[in-house]
Design goal:
CATH topology of the largest domain: Carbamate kinase
Number of domains: 2
Strand order of the largest sheet: 3-4-2-1-7-9-10-8
CATH superfamily of the largest domain: Acetylglutamate kinase-like
Bound molecules: aspartic acid, magnesium ion
Order of helices and strands: EHEHHHHHEHEEEHEEHHEEEHEEHEHEEH
Oligomer: single chain
Distance between the termini: 44 Å
Enzyme class: transferase
Largest sheet: 8 strands, mixed
Protein name: Aspartokinase
CATH class of the largest domain: Alpha Beta
Keywords: Amino-acid biosynthesis, ATP-binding, Kinase, Nucleotide-binding, Transferase
Radius of gyration: 25 Å
Number of helices: 14
GO biological process, one term: homoserine biosynthetic process
GO cellular component, one term: cytosol
Number of strands: 16
Helix content: 25-40%
Length: about 450
């Protein structure tokens, strides 16, 4: 088969008629894009989740009206609305029926069935739009391809069965020259029930289809023109990266950068399929290729920032306790299910930062009184908050002479609470005050990238 790209357009890219038209133009302009995976129009999935959680009739009616309005604003701009209106009305009607039953009793299977309608609607509208631009688009129900287990809300694909179904359903269409338009995020279990892969799951669908189709690449069209050296809202001189490795992108995401985490694209990562990230609203601005081993590998790739970190410093009450000190400290933290992030140690003390990601807490309250009491019985405890973790991400950082010197020189004007250097070859972390964070990122960016 000739060169094949699987393109995925996210919710903001298909939010309204103008955005969808821009996506249609991108698909038409690229002869390699033969399979297109769509999210629901922005906002729709959130509304559907609310309906699936069961709400009172007044709120339900308001949401149904809002969902209808979003899709109708698109229909109203289509040349031949009569070609899709009936189907969209049928789906909207279905949403209403499912929402009413969710109002009586919710269930994970019902939730997945209901929220799958967002992608069903966006793909119908987009297919019609492509037809109006003379593009041989073919709508496909992705549930006939993506087979999953029955873990509603976070279903795992059955790769073998999905492969077989892709061979049967998708390959003939592609061979006929059709442009396949299909849904991200959803699948079907063995009982024939609709499942979903977890929020944001459309990227996974695109990567999975690329894998089973042996595609050359995955194009993720979103609302940002690729990945930057750092957040452009903080550093005006931030530069777009031409390339970045899957590992470096994962480090960036882990350290707080709002970039696509490669884990959401696992099939592409494991099958070594390059992933492109670009903006559907500004395709001419270019994007970033995320690949397994881009060359060259620069020493410094990017800077990430994660705010609102907590630093706990624990010191042993007596040298007698020094043996096993760290083991005991970590046992206590583990017992309280605290995920430790960055650590530095000296002989009888340890400083560690806590990552609040994934916890509902908004500050030091993730340190329960129980935990503190238990720690205090054993060691001195000092807690500092309002800190920010700045991570420099790159390659072979531990092997480059002069990095520590360069870093310290740049950080001279700031009160640095902690530096973690040497544990990872891919990052150097430093903890500074929240209020200094923007300046530190700017200073580092200037020193390392400008
Ligand atoms: N529409 C789904 C969501 O909002 C899936 C996706 O956008 O990737 O989570
Ligand atoms: Mg999305």
């Amino acid at each position: 088969m000739s060169y094949l790209s699987v393109a995925k357009f996210g919710g903001t890219s298909v939010a309204d008629f103008e955005a969808m038209s821009a996506c249609a133009d991108i698909v038409i302009a690229d002869a390699n894009t033969r399979v297109v995976v769509l999210s629901a129009s922005a906002g729709i999935t959130n509304y559907l989740v609310e309906l699936a959680n069961g709400c009172e009739s007044e709120r339900r009616e308001a949401i149904l009206a809002a969902v209808r309005a979003i899709q109708y604003r698109i229909i109203d701009n289509i040349q031949h609305p009569e070609n899709v209106r009936e189907e969209i009305d049928r789906l909207l009607n279905q949403i209403q029926i499912l929402a009413e039953s969710a109002g009586l009793a919710t269930s994970p299977a019902l939730t997945d069935e209901l929220i799958s309608h967002g992608e069903m609607m966006s793909t119908r509208l987009f297919t019609q739009l492509l037809h109006e631009k003379q593009c041989p688009a073919e709508w496909v129900d992705v549930r006939n391809v993506v087979a999953t287990n029955s873990q509603f809300g976070k279903a795992a694909p059955d790769d073998t069965k999905t492969q077989q179904q892709a061979d049967l359903v998708l390959k003939p269409l592609i061979a006929q020259g059709k442009i396949v338009i299909t849904q991200g995020f959803i699948g079907r279990d063995e009982q024939g029930k609709t499942t979903t892969l977890g929020r944001g799951g459309s990227d996974y669908t695109a990567a999975l289809l690329a894998e089973v189709l042996n595609a050359n690449d995955v194009l993720i069209w979103t609302d940002v023109p690729g990945i930057y050296t750092t957040d452009p809202r903080i550093v005006a001189n931030a530069k777009r990266l031409e390339t970045i490795s899957f590992n470096e992108a994962a480090e960036m995401a882990t350290f707080g950068a709002k970039v696509l985490h490669p884990a959401t694209l696992l099939p592409a990562v494991r099958s070594n399929i390059p992933v492109y990230v670009g903006s559907s609203k500004a395709p001419q601005q270019g994007g970033t290729w995320v690949t397994r081993d881009p060359q060259p590998r620069p020493t410094f790739r990017a800077i990430a920032l994660r705010r609102n970190q907590i630093l706990i410093t624990l010191s042993s009450l007596s040298m007698l306790h020094a043996q096993g000190f760290l083991a005991n400290v970590f046992a206590i933290l583990a017992k309280h299910k605290i995920s430790v992030d960055v650590i530095t140690t000296s002989e009888v003390s340890v400083a560690l930062t806590l990552d609040k990601t994934g916890s509902a807490s908004s500050g030091t309250d993730m340190l329960s009184l129980d935990l503190l009491t238990e720690l205090q019985a054993y060691c001195n405890v000092q807690v500092e908050s309002d800190l920010a973790l700045v991570a420099i991400i790159g390659n072979h950082l531990h092997r480059q002479a002069g990095i520590a010197g360069q870093l310290f020189a740049t950080l001279v004007p700031y009160n640095v609470r902690l530096i973690s250097y040497g544990a990872s070859t891919n990052n150097v972390c430093t903890l500074v005050k929240n209020e200094d964070a923007n300046q530190v990122v700017n200073a580092l960016h200037q020193a390392l990238f400008e």
